[in-house]
Amino acid sequence: MLTDILNRQAAVLARSEEVHRALVQIVLAGGGLKEVADELVRLFGGAVLIVAADGEVLAQSGSPEDLAAARASRYVHPSGRVRLERLPLAGERQRPTPRGERAVVAVPIVAGGTDHGRIVAFSPDGVSEAPDVLTLERAATVAALVITKQLAVSAVESKYQTDFLHDLISGRTGGPERAITHSAWLGWDIARPLVVVVAELDPAPGDRHAAQVGELRVQERLAAAWTAAVRARDPKAAVVGFTQEVVALVGVPQRGGLDRLLREIVTQVAAETRVLRRSFSTGVSRVVGGPEGLPAAYEQARRAVAVGRQIHGPGALADFDSLGVYRLLSLIPDSDELRAFVRETLGELATRDDEETQDLRRTLRVLLESNLNVAETARRLHFHYNTLRYRIGKLERMLGPFTGDPHLRLNLTLALHVVAMRGL
User: Fold this and answer.
1) N or C: which end of the chain has fewer CB within 10 A?
2) Is the sign of the CA dihedral 175, 234, 285, 269 positive or negative?
3) Reported confidence tier of residue 423, pLDDT bands at 50, 70, 90
4) What residues have CB less than 8 Å from 378, skipping those under 6 apart?
């Protein structure tokens, strides 16, 4: 009996070692997670899913019927992500499998104390015996090796992409032809009309000295969300996360609709990063025709971020061409000088902030926007004509005869624009 037990254990270990060598050989031959999943399906049948720590399916294998049955199980969300909290791990006490469902077991993929996800086996015969579990655990070790290798390669590629994009927006690539060639090698197409988009995290509310590690994690999540959103719509776009911002070179749609495309991207990124409780502001440059215009476009996008945040507050999306006079006002570094100009020009309209003063400022703004057209202003403000005439007289007593002085009207318009700016 002892001999029989030892022989059985030796056979189990020999088979496990053989499977392990086969899986390692897959990695050494350049295979990835898909090949590992294929090997497990060959051993156990059914379907195998290799999922990330957030439930995203990284690789899968099995017949279409087995995969469909796996996706329809209670362990998979309708969105396609696997519900990790519901998975029965190997070694735990298994609950009875409901009628009509395949037996399922999962093993964790761990490397260096980091949880990289799960290997999930949906087997028609079940994966409950110790040899089968041991095989899955060996496969999880190999999968951890594959993921670690991919992360290392991705880190090197990301570093190279970051350096090259920095050279692109700095004009240090050695000429347009070289820039286009290297970009094509990275999968980017910059030989077409492009806009430069810059996304920058807004300052953390109430915490101007956030921990650096936490800030880096938020920045990484923002960069990942931008990469996914942009590449889904423009596979040849360049998207790179820098230390303080995310920069994307997005192609201009041939049939127009650039504004709609960018708003869709910003909306998707905002939804995916809502859990971070940090907003971001976005700036868009003018359209450029090739790599030689990227340095100027990058500066335009950065200016749009800063000015858009001043005008609209956190979470703004600003186009450089739509900034108008705010571009010039934002170039004045002395905020005290701008405040002094507002006080000197608007007088009481600048120093007071009660409801009546705000109403008078709004009346003045609409009057100037309508080029002193009293009828149009009254219609927009829903005032009676005589009421508006009375307000115009009151404004002229406070500010001077602006209806007959174009220079005063210009000063008043600039002062109102400064009032609309935030972050001074």
Assistant:
1) N
2) negative
3) low
4) 384, 385, 387, 388
Q: In what order do the strands lie in the sheet with 114-123?
A: 57-62, 47-51, 114-123, 103-111
User: Which single residue is written with the structure tokens 């700095």?
Assistant: 170
pLDDT bracket for residue 102 (50, 70, 90): low
CA angle 194/286/304 to nearest 5° reads 120
- CA dihedral for 180, 184, 188, 189, sign (positive or negative): positive
- Contact by Cβ (8 Å): 276, 226: no
Distance spanning both ends of the chain, measured CA to CA: 86
The answer to whether the CB of 285 falls within 8 A of the CB of 298 is yes
Which of the four pLDDT bands, split at 50, 70 and 90, describes residue 209?
Answer: very low
283 with 302: CB under 8 angstroms? yes
Mean pLDDT value of segment 253-259: 85
Q: By CB neighbour count within 10 A (0-12 exposed, 13-18 middle, 19+ buried), where does 5 fall? A: exposed
Q: 3-state DSSP call for residue 377?
A: helix
Cα-Cα-Cα-Cα dihedral sign, residues 385, 391, 392, 394: positive
In this structure, the number of other CB atoms found within 10 A of the CB of residue 274 comes to 10
DSSP 347: T
For residues 185 and 421, give the distance between their C-alpha atoms in angstroms, rounded to a whole number.
Answer: 43
Look-up of token digits 């980017």: 188
Token pair 């005439």: residue? 389
Q: 351: Cβ–Cβ under 8 A, 6 or more apart, which residues?
A: 343
C-alpha span between 47 and 94 (Å, rounded): 19
Type and span of the H or E element at 59: strand 57-62
Task: Please tell me the distance from the alpha carbon of residue 131 to that of residue 27, in angstroms, as a whole number.
Answer: 22
pLDDT value of residue 101: 55
Structure tokens at 272: 């995916």
Residues facing 241 on adjacent strands: 246
What Å distances lie between residue 172 and 156, 280, 292, 295, 346, CA to CA?
21, 29, 10, 9, 47
A 10 A CB-CB count for 295 gives: 16
Q: What is the DSSP letter of 47?
A: E
Q: How many residues does the chain have?
A: 424
What is the DSSP secondary-structure string of 166-182? Answer: HHHHHT-SSSHHHHHHH
d(CA 418, CA 337): 11
pTM assigned to the model: 0.61
In the chain, the largest separation of any two C-alpha atoms, in whole Å, equals 113
